[in-house]
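Progress note, project year one: complex with succinic acid.
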Amino acid sequence: MSRKRSNQYDLVIIGSGIAGLSFALKVAQAGFRVAIFTKKDKAESNTNYAQGGIAAVTSAGDDLDKHVNDTLEAGDGLCDPKVVEEILRDGPDRIKDLVDLGVAFSSLEDGRPSLGKEGGHSERRVLHVKDVTGKAIEDALLANIAEQGVDLFEHFFAIDLITATKASKLGVKVPGPQDRVLGLYLYDANKEKVVTVGAPVVLLATGGAGQTYLYTTNPSIATGDGVAMASRVGLSAMNLEFIQFHPTTFHSLDNDRFLITEAVRGEGAKLIDVKGYPFLKKHHPLADLAPRDVVARAIDREMKRSGSPFVRLATPDMKVDFPGRFPNVYENCLKRGVNPVETPIPVVPAAHYSCGGIPTKLDCSTGLAGLYACGEVACTGLHGANRLASNSLLEAVVMAHRGAEAVCSFLDARKKEKIQLPVWVDGDVPASDERVVLSHNLDELKRTMWDYVGIVRSTKRLQRAQSRIRNLVREINEYYWNAKVDLSLLEVRNLVCVAELIVRSALRRKESRGLHYTLDYPDLAETAEDTLVRPARR
Ligand code: FAD
Ligand code: SIN
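Model obtained:
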């Protein structure tokens, strides 16, 4: 951290993906002092790997009602219709903002945007930059952040929030009756020490939790840190059982599950079984472009039926030049020994997106004063039981705009206070020489989640997962209080916390809806209700 400036900001943002960066830009433009802390290199985020694109109504044949209906349909009765309408309505304006920031979306020869199609969309509406949309957005946002005077700190891991309640417990006098955020503790990975940073507003923009599973499309940063941090200050999590499994990742025997964007199916590629039969048409009228939950379950069933460890994605019916339209997918398939133009790609589903998260209002506020959440970490009500493809980048950028406006008003109205925050005490513990405990527990967690909390669930499997994960939580917490913190310990602590919440949410839901399919309750319940799970007792 800069030694010249104090560790007090107006707004501290955790995470440098689309949500954190977009939010930071808008609040910094209003003249407030903003810092972003991010746990790895600044571009390392789920955002950076997004391929398909960002959904918004931009063509003459499309309209808001169609986008709303597709989102509600995919969400299987659990979306909040008002939220859906509000967020999607803002889409076209936020796309203009991205263009103004320098995102050069792919276009047709006549200058109109090139629009991709993905599962569940009734129209072509996915704006993209070939198949590297996320990287193009991340690069543009980072370039603009550098010009706005935002302090961006890489390799700082947010550990825990400091609230008024917590500070009082540690003997610090905090004026006022209301619990609220005062700042947070961060682990500086380069200096291997914990620092304290103060701010009246903290934004969690920490992304998803794909790393709770053995196989995931998510990079290593996606360890559910924001949900775990919020849970440790007493906030409930919403709809965490709805983990979206992306139907098509390149099959490999190691953990390298490279995504094959759904937009490939949007251009005519088809999933085929061992005999070469395009089996999706047996499962849904939209066949290969059915919503993702349907496609992932159909693949799961097909793999179990045939005994094959993968299905294949065949490209002969595609109308586009594969290497030109999908250069990133093409190169990555070649690297893995498959030329997708000539040979069907072996694919399997993998954990991809967390539809649930910290419940927020439409201004990103949470149940704790001063704490905001935006992006994949949040649960706004847009996605319901299953996110419509390419709606998440859109949600992040729309919500960041709304949240930034709310935070600026909050900061304008607030009374400044100076509170000496309690410092982090490391205790007299040695750096641990028992790393094997952590790696063993991590392996066990990921395998348990994959085997028992996957695409098809049952009460028995979930109960088995719950009992194993509760043991892991106990072991990791004991370890945590008796070792010096470091990155892997902090991540495993969060992963087991979030996994426990996911399993508890899944056990609560006594029906099959959207992404949550359980053999014990195969039908929809009469009424659609959100799941709220309180923090586990410690
Ligand atoms: P992220 O982009 O994941 O950023 C999270 C940030 O928080 C990172 O910088 C991370 O390092 C940081 N962080 C996390 N924890 C901590 C901590 N404790 N301390 C400090 N920093 C922390 N969605 C679409 O709409 N369209 C697509 O085409 C699409 N394709 C995808 C392809 C892939 C391979 C993946 C993985 C996802 C895809 N998604 C897509 C989903 C979408 O990319 C994400 O939902 C979205 O990018 C999330 O943005 P975010 O800003 O919330 O989080
Ligand atoms: C993809 O490109 O298939 C991923 C799109 C998404 O997750 O929204």
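The radius of gyration is 23 Å.
The longest strand covers residues 345-354.
No further modelling is planned for this target in the current period.
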